[in-house]
Amino acid sequence: MVTKLTAMAEAPQPPLRPTGKRLLLCGLVAGPLFTVAYLIEGATRADYDPMRDPVSSLALGPYGWTQVINFLVAGVLMVAFAVGVRRELRARDRRSFFGPVLLGLFGVGLIGAGLFLTDPVSGYPPGTAHELRYTWHGALHDGLSMLVFLGFPIACLVFARRFLGWRQWAWAAYSALSAVVFLVLFVLAGSGFAQEPGYVDVGGLMQRLCISVAWLWITLFAVHLIRTRPLQPCGRPPGHPG
Length: 242
What we know:
The protein is mainly alpha-helical. The protein contains eight helices and no strands.
């Protein structure tokens, strides 16, 4: 799949420096690590229903610290990845700035989601109300999480425009499609957590699909950069506005 999404540049690319490669590897491991962790937690947590309960709810209760660490580790990895992407792009196109910044904010949002606990919703943990009741830390959690849920689709659209300038049509289409699918799933998940009939029982599933769209794009993008480094526009000098 990655091969089909990759377009090799005509000009030869300089080798990737070890530091830059390590930073890009952070983006490669962040998604799988985060996903495996919350899947294990959700499968082993008593009274937790992955189909309806948010991933953030795993940070509540006696073993909630495991999900807190998961948020923090994934966030730090994403910030490091954003730095690596910025370094890689700067060598090819100095105008490419907002995409890496938005990826960095994605990481900051994950860190914030770990530092500030969400409010109980959908009856988890047991004994709490099904309706969402806001606290100051829950409001901070939701606000910082918007850096993830709004930052990612905007980043995809920014990169889609860049890929068009670099004549990498498949990546441009994939990035734009990822943004649209992500937003649709985000709205559906939000409807479930708001206890809207017909969506309550699948709110957790919609959120997991939404998150998976983001992590898949990030993982493939990291592989794309590490293996092919195709960011120089074909037939155009670095720095061309594209």
